[in-house]
Amino acid sequence: MHLSLRTLLLCTAIIVLLPASPGFAEAPRKIAIEIDGKAEFDVVYQRARTNATGAVIGGLIGAGIQAGIEADQDAKKRAELAHYVAEQAWRDVFIKTMTDTLAAKGIEPVWVDAGTHAKPGSADIYLTLFPETFGFRMVDSTTGLVSAYVEFDAIYSNQPISGKNKPPREPFYLTDKTQVSYDDLVKDNASINPRIESVLALAARRLTTKIVYNSR
C-alpha cells in the first residue's frame, strides 16, 4: 500500500504534536523537603582570630576561659548587627530561592510537616535540611576582613530518608565573594541585610543544582 505525500505529512505532524498535547504532558517531578532545626544568626570574629597573642593568652589563662572571652566579644558584635538583619531572612530568602529554582527545573516541592517523615512513593527526591548558622565571619585573620556566610547540612536521596540506613549528612559552607572590615560594615549598616540575602540565595541555588544533578 502506498501512502500519498499529503498523508505522510499529516501523520508526521500528528506525531510531532502528540507530546505537546495536554494528555501527553510530562508530570513534574516532586521533591519532599523536611527541615530539621532552625538557622541562627551569628558573628564569628574573635573566635576566628588565630594569632600569637591569642595563643599566649590561651596558654596563660586556659583555653576554656579564652574561648568564653572570645564568645562574649562575638556576642556583642552579633547583637550590634542583628538589628539590621531581617528576622526571617533564612526562610524568606533561602527557602524561596530554592523553591523558585526547583520550579524552574520542573521539580515541585512537597513540604513535610515538622516532626513527621515523607512517605515512600510520595516524591521522586527526598531532602532533609539541617539549618545551622548564617551571618558574618572573619575570613582573613591578617586583615580582619569579614564576609557574609551560611552553614548547614543536608541529606538527599531517591529513597525516603529515615531509619538506620539513611545517608550521612553533607556539610555546606559558603561565603559571599565580597569582603569588608567589621568597622566599615557597621558604618554601612544598610548593606548588612543585602549581603546576608546574597549568600543565602547563592547557597540555595548551589544546593538545588547539586541535588538535581545527582538525582538524574
Note down, in words, how this protein is organized.
- By secondary structure, the protein is of the alpha/beta class.
- It has a single domain, classed as Lipoprotein like domain (Double Stranded RNA Binding Domain, 2-Layer Sandwich), CATH 3.30.160.
- The chain is 41% helix and 25% strand.
- It contains six helices and seven strands; from the N terminus they run H-E-E-H-H-H-E-E-E-E-E-H-H.
- It has helices spanning 5-17, 52-61, 63-82, 89-104, 182-187, 192-214, and strands spanning 29-35, 40-44, 107-111, 125-140, 145-157, 170-175, 180-181.
- Strands 1, 2, 3, 4, 5, 6 and 7 form a seven-stranded mixed β-sheet that branches.
- A hairpin with a 4-residue loop joins strand 4 (125-140) and strand 5 (145-157).
- Helix 2 (52-61) crosses helix 3 and helix 4 (89-104) packs parallel to helix 6.
- It is elongated and about 50 Å long.
- The model is unreliable at 5-25 (pLDDT under 50).
Care to give the gist of this entry?
This protein has 216 residues and is α/β, with parallel strands linked by helices.
Task: Provide tags for this entry.
216 residues, alpha/beta, Double Stranded RNA Binding Domain, elongated
Task: Write the SSE topology.
Layout: H1 5-17, E1 29-35, E2 40-44, H2 52-61, H3 63-82, H4 89-104, E3 107-111, E4 125-140, E5 145-157, E6 170-175, E7 180-181, H5 182-187, H6 192-214
Parallel strand pairs: 1-3, 1-4, 2-4
Antiparallel strand pairs: 4-5, 5-6, 5-7
Helix pairs in contact: 2-3, 4-6
